[in-house]
């Protein structure tokens, strides 16, 4: 007789990398056990949730193979395509299967609830078993796995024996949290005439039944409100074959009132773009397009038309946005166009809410999925279109393992499904333009604003001149004038600075030392707190109070250097005490909903000036903003990142694009000490092509992406020599492997910040052409080092296709 075995992926970090474990599948559980279904299995001395990877049958099974305890899901929670995608994630990003599966389905291994024992049905439990104290104990306990675990080992063995004998059954109790919330629907199974006839017959005998039948004769279906129609009313009608009861998952997402807004007539460029995308959607096979549309060109409308096209063909679409909290405006527009055909996936969803949305997508009830990075894994079965909006945003790259790039996943899924993938931006990444140049993607341009207005006038302000004329303020004369004029005429201004806090560091004028974090190799940042100034570490959260007394030499000569957003706020309060100011950065948006509140307040005109970091550059649409001021463009240029120029150009262009979006002409002022820099010049001139040519040449010359790919290995450990040793070992493993011929290796060295939170960090950077040539060897070397490091109490990570070093 053959036995069913299941290969199960279990999440037990640190113990092994990507092994799958065999379990015996009891026949009673076999019917639901399919790949993608979750199970609970005994693992070492605990119960663990796992995902079935494969089911196979074998004639001989070792007696050491343990049986599956319970099957959690009725239907697979991961589609076949998602399982294949998980496999690919492991190859592409040196990830483990549990990491990949958790990325695709957050909480996949968090099955709440536990095992319960109950007397087996249809089995006569002998009296001595029934009377046993252990048995009593088990039944008295609340149903969770610890009930068994807490018993002494004899009792545990006894229970195991009873389970073997079939007296007891293990039942999994899954708490409601992970089940989709179900709503009951009543629907008619007969034609209206027949229902009305049946209603007439019941009019006096059962008036409620008659009422329900009459209602269904008109509507065909209704949600079951139990107050109105109790079970005693419904059940006889079900038995008579007149009414059917269905349970369906419902969306818990609370929508604002839907206001129908008619689609606007397309501009010439929008019409052309829409037609081009429609062609690509209809053409067989997978395609890629880059939509390069200047800020305010109406890309959203083009996306909506493309989505409409796909949905009308009965296929599904996924729209990725950089940050869902920042796109209430966008979601609102989609809701008013498509209603509840959209599903929204975002990180603030509770587990249950996510499961509801997930279920609606799996069933095809929702045909349009909107969400941030991880929504690229949405379980759509019939994918026709993926759109990645603001494609250049760094948030599409996941910082933790698996270090995936949602843009690559989008391409991969589109290829598998024969779908179109669209990358949209006002400032396409070098990667995206490379796809166009290499003939892999079609370029679609929207060179003008949808409202017919010109792009905002951008002026560069040379801050060296200000110093010469004795202006020591954060604001140049020019910016002061424009701020005054803007606010006095009842319009709004945005001030942008890519640095939070009050000052970025301290320096003693007597000895030249600054105040360092005791746990990290980094200067403490100055923050303004209620009681005065504080020094804060942005890496580990360490805080201390600030005084001008230098901790190194004792002189009262400590000064704050490098401006942050808080300093702008106090400078405005000093110069214009009557201006109403909002600040949006990591510090003011920690609380849930705080970010949306700031956006809503500014949109409603409850403030004159919005100060913010890069958060304010992401696609917000404020019609009353006339002035945008970039307080210090240089802070971005000097970041130790090969993409510093690209980020500067993108942020300046995006921020400038917030000005003059409606009826007012916009003005943007860029303050800088390096007015001649090409990234600043090009952003001021709205000259993407010149920027692109220059940056492309530099990247090609120094061999940086997109002319190679980078992978960054990082080892961290409390002891510096262990971290360094791991990085050196990784380097040696690679030098011994065949992959060394296909890559350039930057030797083991301390990472940009040598110590964070008392952990020393050493890195090895790899440059290579194609991951296919080196991936296997790199992954193998990584695993060797990582397993060793896990035993030593440190950690390793490998960021493949790294976007920064
Ligand atoms: P982008 O994302 O390209 O910066 P949006 O999609 O936010 O631009 O559109 C900018 C503004 O133009 C929005 O207020 C939008 O409602 C408006 N708009 C878009 N298309 C049209 C159109 N065809 N006619 C009139 N207004 C439009
Ligand atoms: Zn620190």
Number of domains: 6
CATH class type of the largest domain:
Alpha Beta
Associated small molecules:
adenosine-5'-diphosphate, zinc ion
What distance lies between the first and last C-alpha atoms, to the nearest angstrom? 57 Å
Low-confidence stretches: 139-150, 174-180
Which features characterize this protein?
alpha/beta; 6 domains; binds adenosine-5'-diphosphate; binds zinc ion; GIY-YIG endonuclease; seven-stranded parallel β-sheet; six-stranded parallel β-sheet; 805 residues; 32 strands
Explain what this protein looks like in three dimensions:
The protein has 805 residues and is of the alpha/beta class. It has six domains: 107 residues, GIY-YIG endonuclease; 64 residues; 68 residues; 179 residues, P-loop containing nucleotide triphosphate hydrolases (Rossmann fold); 186 residues, Rossmann fold, CATH 3.40.50; 91 residues, ACT domain (Alpha-Beta Plaits), CATH 3.30.70. Helix content is 34%, strand content 24%. The protein contains 25 helices and 32 strands. The strands form eight sheets. The chain has a seven-stranded parallel β-sheet with strand order 13-14-12-15-16-11-17, with helices on both faces. A hairpin with a 2-residue loop joins strand 3 and strand 4. Helix 1 crosses helix 2, helix 7 runs antiparallel to helix 8 and helix 22 packs antiparallel against helix 23. The longest helix is centred in the C-terminal third of the chain and has 21 residues. The radius of gyration is 31 Å and the shape is globular. About 2% of the residues have low confidence. It binds adenosine-5'-diphosphate and zinc ion. Zinc ion binds next to loops. One of its GO terms (molecular function) is DNA binding. Belongs to the helicase family. PriA subfamily. It catalyses: ATP + H2O = ADP + phosphate + H(+); Couples ATP hydrolysis with the unwinding of duplex DNA by translocating in the 3'-5' direction. Its EC number is 5.6.2.4.
